[in-house]
């Protein structure tokens, strides 16, 4: 007897089931990182079950799944009865709570203590925070465990005197209240931004999350993101596994996706575009053409939005971005300051393009415009770091080299010297 082939669901049914999973940070789907999940879960359970206080930083490049990991662990922990009844989770973001006053107001709101605080006046931040934590004590004087999640942790480091971090780490170290502070940051060396008194109270526990470094792991992640492991979609799951196993598909993914950006965020975006194309073509199976379309689409989206912005820059501003590109290559993407960029810029002007302005005031104004447009970002926050003069405060570049290259190519009447400087070797640029 011939076994009947499982019919494939309609393209729209497949897309409807997969799109929430692939739609960026809103997705609750999480797979892999078993050791990291276990480590963080055990630490939270020790806080809840044994009253053990702790602090930890989850570190790794952007798009690697740090926030998704923490969210997944919180969801797993919340399934326990003891967690549901007792634990309070406070979630803060350095992009939203831009100073300690705003952070304290949101902590009060998330702890549901607005009525308790009322019109009370506190002498200090520490006194205010201690009052909030003491208010959570139950009838037998034991305190409810509190989990603090600080996303964009490096932004909190730029708050005046780092008062919030100091007090949270101080409470965790003193063990007066069972709390765990989990910071999330894409700056691997973020602990260097901590003041001495804050650093001394941090437990120095780090959980590093790295992008997948093997193609096999990347292809397995691709397969996991696309399969649903249900009877209804068993035919689709089989077609995905067959598709992912093809040599030409693996070669395409390796050369065009994995070697360019191997983050989970990029993979999700890439697969979402491929699924859109599959639905548009009316096919119930993924094909190589769909992946090709997804690559072109994501490339155009990234380039079009930023190249249009770069085309409106002055030649001086464009040259500053090229100087940044060379500096980032020389120093392996370490943060830089204005003085380093200015030095590289002046060197190019004097050797190759004498008509460029090199007056410090003119170049400084161009630099400030790049910062305002967020093409260059201050490390941490807009304020100068710890009293450091503005020209020495650290910054990071936000323009990918490929986008900069395409913008220079499309720049109207771009001088030949500038085009040559962009494509010159970094050795030549720095000597």
Alpha carbon gap, first and last residue: 76 Å
Specify the biggest β-sheet.
Answer: 5 strands, parallel
What's the β-strand tally?
Answer: 7
Strand content: 5-15%
Poorly predicted runs are: 381-387, 426-431
Strand order of the largest sheet: 2-3-4-1-5
Q: Measured on Cα atoms, how large is the radius of gyration?
A: 26 Å
Q: Output the number of helix runs.
A: 21
Which of globular, elongated, flat, extended, rod-shaped describes the shape? flat
Mean pLDDT: 82
Class per helix and strand makeup: alpha/beta
* Helix-strand pattern: HHEHHEHHHEHHEHEHHHHHHHHEEHHH
Helical residues, percent: 40-55%
What does this structure look like?
The protein has 431 residues and is α/β, with parallel strands linked by helices. It is built from 21 helices and seven strands. The chain has helices at 11-22, 34-50, 66-77, 81-86, 100-110, 114-117, 125-134, 153-156, 163-174, 196-199, 215-226, 234-244, 247-258, 264-281, 288-311, 315-330, 338-351, 360-372, 401-410, 416-423, 426-429; strands at residues 54-59, 88-93, 146-151, 179-185, 206-208, 376-378, 395-397. Strands 2-3-4-1-5 form a five-stranded parallel sheet, with helices on both faces. A two-stranded antiparallel sheet has the order 6-7. α1 (11-22) runs antiparallel to α14 (264-281), α14 (264-281) packs across α15 and α16 (315-330) crosses α17 (338-351). The N and C termini lie far apart (76 Å).
């Amino acid at each position: 007897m011939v076994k009947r082939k499982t019919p494939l669901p309609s393209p729209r049914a497949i897309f409807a089931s997969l799109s929430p999973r692939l739609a960026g940070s809103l997705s609750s789907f999480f797979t892999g990182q078993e050791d990291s999940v276990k480590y963080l879960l055990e630490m939270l359970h020790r806080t809840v079950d044994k009253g053990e206080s702790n602090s930890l930083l989850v570190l790794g490049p952007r798009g690697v799944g740090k926030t998704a990991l923490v969210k997944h662990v919180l969801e797993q922990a919340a399934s326990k009865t003891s967690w549901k009844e007792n634990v309070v989770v406070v979630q803060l973001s350095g992009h939203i709570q831009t100073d300690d006053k705003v952070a304290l107001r949101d902590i009060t709101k998330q702890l549901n203590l607005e009525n308790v605080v009322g019109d009370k006046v506190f002498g200090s931040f520490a006194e205010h925070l201690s009052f909030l934590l003491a208010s959570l004590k139950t009838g037998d004087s034991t305190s409810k465990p509190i989990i603090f999640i600080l996303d964009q942790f490096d932004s909190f480091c730029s708050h005046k005197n780092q008062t919030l971090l100091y007090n949270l780490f101080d409470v965790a170290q003193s063990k007066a209240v069972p709390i765990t502070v989990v910071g999330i940051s894409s700056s691997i060396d973020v602990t260097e931004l901590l003041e001495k008194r804050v650093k001394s109270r941090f437990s120095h526990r780090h959980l590093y999350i790295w992008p997948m470094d093997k193609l096999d792991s990347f292809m397995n992640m691709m397969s996991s993101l696309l399969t649903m492991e249900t009877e209804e979609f068993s035919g689709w799951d089989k077609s995905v596994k067959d598709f992912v196993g093809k040599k030409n598909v693996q070669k395409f993914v390796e050369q065009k996706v994995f070697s360019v950006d191997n983050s989970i965020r990029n993979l999700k975006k890439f697969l979402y575009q491929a699924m859109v194309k599959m639905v548009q073509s009316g096919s119930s199976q993924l094909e190589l053409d769909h992946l090709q379309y997804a690559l072109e689409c994501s490339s155009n989206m990234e380039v079009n939005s930023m190249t249009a912005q770069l085309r409106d820059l002055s030649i001086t501003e464009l040259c500053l971005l090229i100087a940044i590109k060379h500096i980032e290559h020389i120093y392996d993407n370490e943060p830089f300051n204005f003085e380093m960029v200015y030095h590289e810029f002046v060197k190019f002007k004097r050797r190759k393009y004498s008509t460029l302005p090199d007056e410090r005031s003119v170049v400084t104004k161009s630099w400030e415009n790049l910062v305002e447009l967020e093409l260059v970002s201050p490390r941490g926050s807009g304020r100068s770091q710890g009293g450091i003069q503005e020209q020495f405060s650290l910054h990071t570049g936000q323009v990918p080299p490929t986008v900069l290259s395409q913008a220079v190519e499309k720049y109207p009447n771009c001088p030949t010297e500038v085009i040559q400087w962009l494509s010159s070797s970094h050795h030549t640029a720095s000597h």
